[in-house]
Amino acid sequence: MIYIGLVVLKSQEDLDPHHVGSRGLASAPEPRHPPKNIAIVGAGIGGTSAAYFLRQEFGPGVKIDVYESGTVGGRLATEAIDGRDYETGGSIIHPLNLHMKQFVDKLGLSIRAEVPSKMGIFNGKELTFEESDWFIVNFLRMMWNHGFNPLRMHMWVEGLLDKFMRIYQYQQFSYSFSTVERMLHAMNGDEFLALLNQTLEEAMLAHGFSQTFINEIVTPISRVNYGQSVRLHAFVGAIALAGAESGQWAVDGGNKRVCSGLLYHSKAELIPARVSNIALKTRPSKSGTITNFYELNYVGDSGSAHSLYDIVVLATPLHLGLSDISFSGFSPALSSHFPGHYHQTVSTLVHGRLNVSFLDAKRKASDFFVSEISTTDGEKLGISSLSCLDPVHITPGYTRPPASQTAVWKVFSPEPLTEEQLKTLFISREHVSEKRWLAYPSTKHQSVKLRPSSSITASITSVLSSGRRQQWR
Ligand SMILES: Cc1cc2nc3c(=O)[nH]c(=O)nc-3n(C[C@H](O)[C@H](O)[C@H](O)COP(=O)(O)OP(=O)(O)OC[C@H]3O[C@@H](n4cnc5c(N)ncnc54)[C@H](O)[C@@H]3O)c2cc1C
Ligand SMILES: *[C@@H]1O[C@H](CO)[C@@H](O)[C@H](O)[C@H]1NC(C)=O
Ligand SMILES: *[C@@H]1O[C@H](CO)[C@@H](O)[C@H](O)[C@H]1NC(C)=O
Q: Which residues form the Prenylcysteine lyase domain (predicted)?
């Protein structure tokens, strides 16, 4: 589950910082002058859903421009192989992601048909866990190896999600928060904040989970979801665990269709350009007060240009290598890069035949149906996960082939795969494509610093979520 943090630069001095918009509580002040024009930087799910909500909020009168330097969808992206599309970025959505549910309904999209899948855990030598077709077998195996740890983990995560769901109520009443910490505090007192102060491993040990369970089950979940071990901070770790719960889904035809749909529905104008600088300017208004506005400088196909806006929403991470926007005229000064860095996850799609003996020396490939393999820290080849992909649209009669046949596999790894690694993993390769993502914040605990400058409003508007079962495929 990933938050989309939006930084909103507002010029309307009469907007209450904690109650934005006209649908606020009865006591909330109505904005006297609705904005005339709004710029959104980034057409990922964050930017396009912002366009949708802002249109709802301010009606048809406001002009909404969405700037995108890459492709609409951002980290929701697909890749075509042999005439079919496959998800290469964010692929599965949590059942409690009510916004995505609502968008899919509103836009007339549908949920992708489910194909049963089997999960396995690879420790570098062998598969230490392999899901059976029978729920009771899985349950008894888990109980035998880990006692009540799995059940207790489920209850722990459900408890946290329950608190997290409060975000929808706050949003319904148009609350916003000036820092991420305040929002987390509003949802769950000090508990979420405390999770930011410790690693997932520390938090789980403190809750009485066993070290074996953490190494054998929790680590693979955190590796597949964040490419990182249980030393990431416990809040993000808990989000990874939420991704291991059942009921995860995807959008028929590709998750990025939600982004293009929202853009169309919101009647926003898409400007294919890279925003390079945002400058805060002031002008005297008729009533004698000073109003702020923003000058947005951008580079598009026809060169550099600028436009003026009342509100700018930054819907892209401001970390090094991701957006590179400079800010001028702000006091205190706004740095163009947020502290910390993004974790590289390389997503390699291979259309070919898996080398089953790498995973299990004794197994016949025609009997191998495990489709989602996550790894423990003992994995030495340098992969985080390996999964057999289904296309974004499931045609009637589709079944996933056994590993003896050619299929589309997705490998997540921290570094690009070498020829040597590919040779070990695959017996044959018809097509290989690689996408290097700066995927999610590298969340080693303590390196996270969530607080943006006090002059800006960070509000988390939407929650996407993680993997079907153990996996973000
Ligand atoms: C490999 C991978 C797997 C993942 N799996 C899952 C999953 O299974 N489930 C899940 O919930 N989440 C998953 N995620 C995370 C999820 O994809 C992201 O959290 C989400 O898509 C981020 O959306 P966003 O709109 O905040 O940012 P982005 O999608 O990154 O959008 C930002 C956009 O801004 C544009 N931009 C940047 N700078 C500028 C500029 N200066 N001017 C103009 N435009 C600019 C970018 O081109 C980009 O399109 C995964 C991510 C990756 C990379
Ligand atoms: C987190 O750690 C910081 C610094 O060590 C401390 O000031 C703060 O009180 C801690 N917060 C919680 C909720 O434990
Ligand atoms: C498959 O994996 C095994 C075990 O790791 C390895 O010895 C072999 O070289 C790999 N490649 C092929 C083509 O079998």
A: 129-446
- Tens of pLDDT, residue by residue over 94-139, are 999 999 999 999 999 999 999 988 999 999 999 998 888 777 888 8
Domain ranges, ordered by start, for the chain: 6-74+255-340+453-459, 115-146+342-441
Q: What gap in Å lies between CA 397 and CA 36, rounded to an integer? A: 51
pLDDT of 169 > 60? The answer is yes
Domain 6-74+255-340+453-459 CATH assignment equals 3.40.1190.10: no
Does position 455 have pLDDT exceeding 50, yes or no? no
268 close to 315: Cβ distance less than 8 angstroms? no
Q: Which tens digits make up the pLDDT trace of 291-313?
A: 889 999 999 999 999 999 999 99
Pocket of ligand 3, beta carbon within 6 A: 355, 357-358, 424, 427
Instruction: List the structure tokens of 38.
Output: 């709004």
Mean pLDDT of 336-362: 92
How much is the pLDDT for 444?
Answer: 64
Helix axes 234-242, 180-196, angle to 10 degrees: 90
Q: In what order do the strands lie in the sheet with 2-10?
A: 269-271, 63-67, 37-41, 311-314, 2-10, 457-464
Residue nearest to atom 11 of ligand 2 (CA): 194
pLDDT at 56 exceeding the cut of 80: yes
Give me 121's structure tokens: 């855990």
Cα(427) to centroid(ligand 3), Å: 8
| Four-residue CA torsion sign, 449, 455, 456, 457 | positive
Query: Which ligand minimizes its atom distance to the CA of 50?
Result: 1
pLDDT band at 65 (very low <50, low <70, confident <90, very high): very high
Residue 197 near ligand 2, beta carbon < 6 Å:
yes
Model pLDDT, residue 228? 83
| Spacing of C-alpha 296 from chain mean position | 27
Judged by phi (left if over 0) then psi (alpha if -120 to 50, else beta), residue 253 lies in left
Which ligand is closest in space to the CA of residue 445?
Answer: 2
* DSSP structure class, residue 74: T
Residue 466 CA: nearest ligand 1 atom is: 9
- Mutation pick for ligand 1 pocket among 316, 347, 392, 465 (CB with most ligand atoms within 8 Å): 316
438-458 burial string, b = 16+ CB within 10 Å, else e?
bbbbbbebeebebebbeebbb
Q: Which 8-state DSSP code applies to residue 215? A: I
Of 75, 248, 460, 468, the one to substitute when testing ligand 1's pocket (max ligand atoms within 8 A of C-beta) is: 75
